[in-house]
Design the sequence.
């Protein structure tokens, strides 16, 4: 299992995507976090307590990683629950489109 | 929760849609409720082997309409069981993608919310009470295929005995491993009859360290069917059908 310092340093090297991440960005995550995100894509949310268990880190360390993942655009800022746990939601970018020049699409749309 | 099966290939023309249609029908023959979603929005095609007439006036919505927010995903799901023949004990539902040029280009130009696609899979599964959801993908890797690989329980990667396919498949296998897909199976399709099937299967399994679930021989009957129906139901005693049945047995939940 990766140490906190390894995960933190690997995450620090990733570019921030303020509008959310694309699926391809998930491939850039460290292995332990890729597994978390694979499940997160289906469940759409994960509790801090679950992250602690999966990553095998302390609450403080896990929360620090959560903060970095929010800064990098992978997660939305956490929401507190009644049970004092935090819930993180996946932050997928809203749109997937082809950057081909708009004029080309205009012509094709006239077909 | 339904089992999600994604069918992928690195290159086009490998027989993804035909394999998907056949496995869907064979799973339905076991009494299962199967949903099939055509996420190949650039070049949709699985409606053909499932004998669904997309140009009929009865077709009001497609996956494109759902992704634009014009309808619920269940509005774009059609029961195609009766079209297939074979008195299937289960059901096959199809969510087709639009074949209208203007609608394809609009989606490619404007894009869509990939998260909505994911939500749609959940809604479809729940509202149609599906046992299996099959996702027919666009060849190669893009955000949609990565999503379908990430959420899948079983990933089927189809390749032909061709060196371009071999190299591309290595990329897909590597990505699927990175995403920790629970079950990954290879299917070799259109195998020339002059090849030693056991030897090719063994070499491919060794090359990718991944099981080959089926080796489908090149078939003149398949070619002559020309995607105008489900092969396994049309030719139930054919050797290709036996391999497809084996694949369906491995994938059945």
Sequence:
């Amino acid at each position: 299992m990766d140490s906190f310092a390894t995960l933190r340093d690997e995450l620090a090297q990733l570019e921030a995507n303020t509008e959310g991440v694309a699926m391809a960005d998930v491939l850039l995550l460290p292995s332990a976090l890729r597994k978390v995100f694979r499940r997160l894509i289906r469940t759409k949310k994960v509790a801090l307590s679950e992250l602690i268990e999966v990553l095998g880190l302390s609450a403080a360390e896990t929360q620090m990683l959560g903060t970095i993942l929010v800064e990098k655009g992978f997660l939305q800022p956490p929401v507190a629950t009644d049970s004092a746990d935090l819930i993180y939601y996946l932050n997928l970018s809203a749109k997937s489109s082809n950057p081909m020049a708009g004029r080309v699409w205009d012509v094709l749309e006239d077909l | 929760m339904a089992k999600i099966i994604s069918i992928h290939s690195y290159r086009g023309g490998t027989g993804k849609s035909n394999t998907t249609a056949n496995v869907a029908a064979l799973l339905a023959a076991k009494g299962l409720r199967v949903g099939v979603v055509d996420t190949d929005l650039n070049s949709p095609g699985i409606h053909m082997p499932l004998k669904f007439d997309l140009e009929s006036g009865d077709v009001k919505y497609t996956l494109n309409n759902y992704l634009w927010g014009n309808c619920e995903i269940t509005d774009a799901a059609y029961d195609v069981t009766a079209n297939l023949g074979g008195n299937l004990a289960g059901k096959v539902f199809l969510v087709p993608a639009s074949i209208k040029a203007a609608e394809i280009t609009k989606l490619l130009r404007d894009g869509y919310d990939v998260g909505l696609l994911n939500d749609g899979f959940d809604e479809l599964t729940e509202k149609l009470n599906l046992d299996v959801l099959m996702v027919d993908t666009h060849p190669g890797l893009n955000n949609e295929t990565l999503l379908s690989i990430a959420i899948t329980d079983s990933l089927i990667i189809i390749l032909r005995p061709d060196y371009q396919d071999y190299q591309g498949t290595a990329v897909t296998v590597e990505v699927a491993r990175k995403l920790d897909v629970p079950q990954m199976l290879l299917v070799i399709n259109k195998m020339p009859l002059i090849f030693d099937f056991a030897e090719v299967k063994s070499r491919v399994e060794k090359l990718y360290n991944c099981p080959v679930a089926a080796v489908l021989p090149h078939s003149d009957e398949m070619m002559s069917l020309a995607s105008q129906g489900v092969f396994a139901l049309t030719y139930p005693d054919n050797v290709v059908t036996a391999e497809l049945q084996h694949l369906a047995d491995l994938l059945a939940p």
Remarks:
- Residues 34 and 238 of chain B are 23 Å apart (CA to CA).
- The beta strands of chain B are 3-8, 33-38, 78-79, 91-95, 132-136, 154-159, 183-191, 212-217.
- The mean pLDDT of chain B is 93.
